[in-house]
Amino acid sequence: xxxxxxxxxxxxxxxxxxxxxxxxxxxxxxxxxxxxxxxxxxxxxxxxxxxxxxxxxxxxxxxxxxxxxxxxxxxxxxxxxxxxxxxxxxxxxxxxxxxxxxxxxxxxxxxxxxxxxxxxx
Length: 121
Known about the structure:
Strand content: 35-45%
Radius of gyration: 13 Å
Distance between the termini: 37 Å
Largest sheet: 6 strands, antiparallel
CATH architecture: Sandwich
CATH superfamily: Jelly Rolls
Low-confidence stretches: none
Strand order of the largest sheet: 6-3-8-2-1-9
Structural class: mainly beta
Shape: globular
């Protein structure tokens, strides 16, 4: 049995994106957004996504709705829904996110958003 503390792993993470766990049906990824940084507007046609924020203040834009999200809150993004998250605070925003089914290569580590964009170019 594997027991993990994803919140603590998210707090310790400084990479833009780091895959922690990938199974046949779900994937867990930690992310860090610098002040002013955004994930980037995107749609996952076949993947539901749950994002749990552990540090920071983020503007969430999901399916045309906007909300301010803080530590301890989770945002649900159904497959096919356009979304973006922007760090609107003065400190890094950290989160862990679950994709079902998996969305990224199991070995993915993008230290910066530029690295992530280059990998998908």
